[in-house]
Write a structure and sequence with these properties.
By secondary structure, the chain is α/β, with parallel strands linked by helices. The protein has one domain: Rossmann fold. The protein contains 8 helices and 6 strands, in the order E-H-H-E-H-E-H-H-H-E-H-E-E-H. It has a 6-stranded mixed β-sheet. Helix 2 crosses helix 3, helix 4 crosses helix 5 and helix 6 packs across helix 7. The chain is globular and about 50 Å long. The mean pLDDT is 97. The structure holds 2-phosphoglyceric acid. The site of 2-phosphoglyceric acid has 12 residues, from helix 7. The site of 2-phosphoglyceric acid (2PG) has 12 residues, from helix 7. One of its GO terms (molecular function) is phosphoglycerate mutase activity. Its EC number is 5.4.2.11. It comes from Turicimonas muris. InterPro entries: His_Pase_superF_clade-1, His_PPase_superfam, PG/BPGM_mutase_AS, Phosphogly_mut1.
């Protein structure tokens, strides 16, 4: 049996402001830092000892990992950062307020943009400074691979091969792995692990800063999975994420 831990970053400034974030590199809020520390403490209490960590190239996930590792006293660990674990690219919606967008385009349209499996949000143009190919961070990457927008299906297409080709071999070597990433890059991975249908993935929402443990069999199929922490608070946090794109109130 193998065990891995997945974790969405703690609350970011744009989570707080309820703005579509995607690949924009916003930092954690004070609350987000506390969530990351609490996650580290929970993992420590449960006796987790990791060998290798993976994260995205976005600071909210990187910082969450650092804070959690600090609490665990495992800051010595190797960390692999890869854009394939980045948040789903939100195209031209990046920076917009989710509630205001719902007021303008309707709850249903925003729900489709946020959670449908294969409808991407409106795309950026290649002139946009938000296109990753125009940013120094991605200058060595093939511009053809840099998204102008992504639906979850597109995110699955980069996250799952990364999982299969990079992470699974390390798990098979016996390494204990911690992955800190993002709401939608983790939804892409969980869809694959739990074999969730395109229709049912719409209902999956991931709370910030909460360790999610997966126990996997020899074929990397989940035996069980569970969040660490206060289960009632986690349920409420998941419902709050689902409600972020609604107009009104
Ligand atoms: O804005 C984003 O990038 C994501 C995660 O915060 O939001 P959503 O939950 O709306 O997909």
């Amino acid at each position: 049996m193998y065990k891995i831990v997945l974790m969405r970053h703690g609350e970011s400034q744009w989570n707080l402001e309820n703005r579509f974030t995607g690949w924009v590199d916003v930092d954690l809020t004070e609350k987000g830092r506390k969530e990351a520390a609490l996650a580290g403490q929970l993992l420590k209490k449960q006796g987790f000892v990791f060998d290798l960590c993976y994260t995205s190239v976005l600071k909210r996930a990187i910082r969450t990992l650092c804070i959690a590792l600090d609490e665990l006293d495992q800051l010595y660990l190797p960390v692999i950062k890869d854009w394939r674990l980045n948040e789903r690219h939100y195209g031209a919606l990046q920076g917009l307020n989710k509630k205001e967008t719902a007021e303008k385009f309707g709850n249903e349209q925003v729900m489709i943009w946020r959670r449908s499996y294969d409808v991407p949000p409106p795309a950026l143009s290649k002139e946009s400074p938000m296109w990753p190919a125009n940013q120094s961070r991605y200058r060595l990457e093939d511009p053809e691979l840099m998204p102008l927008t992504e639906c979850l299906k597109d995110t699955v297409k980069r996250v799952v091969p990364y999982w299969e080709n990079e992470i699974v071999p390390k798990i098979r070597e016996g390494k204990q792995i911690l992955i800190t990433a993002h709401g939608n890059s983790l939804r892409a991975l969980i869809k694959h692990l739990d074999n969730i249908s395109d229709a049912d993935i719409v209902g999956l929402n991931i709370p910030t800063g909460t360790p999610l443990v997966y126990e996997l069999d020899e074929n990397m199929k989940p035996i069980k999975s569970y969040y660490l922490g206060d289960q009632e608070a986690i349920k409420n946090a998941m419902a709050a994420v689902a409600a972020q794109g609604k107009a009104g109130k």
